[in-house]
Amino acid sequence: MKRSSQDSSSRNIPEDRKLYVVDSINDLNKLNLCPAGSQQLFPLEEKLQDVSTDSGNGSHSLFLVGLIIVLIISLALVSFVIFLIVQTGNKMEDVSRRLAAEGKDIDDLKKINSIIVKRLNQLDSEQN
Q1: Which of 15, 83, 95, 100 stands 20 to 30 A from 76 (CA)?
Q2: What pLDDT, in 10s, does the model give residues 24-41?
Q3: pLDDT at 51
């Protein structure tokens, strides 16, 4: 059982350890202590390689999907804000028109009031 320097420096699991793991799982299956779905074994390097390659692509695609969703939401919010600004501007124009019209009405009422006061003063002076 000599290990070469190549085996010790690499990440490969030694063959005798793989067989020990398989035998142990087989023994557990015989004792019905292990569920039936755990019989499929993959070397540790294959699992690590699959996780590292898939997670890189998955994280990039997940990042892009998240970025697209954020951009769509921000576009919708900006559109809503622009809509609110336009609506507010329209309402302000309506209010300023109403105030101008009411200002004219108030001026007319002041003129009518002053005419009535003058007429009442004339009638009062004629009676005295």
Answers
A1: 95
A2: 777 776 776 545 555 555
A3: 47
Please count the CA atoms within 13 angstroms of the CA of 45 that sit on its side-chain side: 6
Helix (H, G, I), strand (E, B) or coil at 128: coil
Whether the CB-CB separation of 41 and 29 falls below 8 Å is answered with no
Distance (Å, rounded) from C-alpha 32 to C-alpha 26? 10
User: The whole model's pTM is what?
Assistant: 0.40
pLDDT of residue 126: 85
CB 44 within 8 A of CB 13: yes
Asked whether the predicted pLDDT for residue 56 surpasses 80, the reply is: no
Distance CA 108, CA 102 (A): 10
If one counts every other C-beta atom within 10 angstroms of the C-beta of residue 12, the result is 14
Q: How far apart (Å, rounded) are the C-alpha atoms in residues 74 and 67?
A: 10
- For the chain, give the number of residues: 128
What is the gyration radius of the CA atoms in the chain, in angstroms? 45
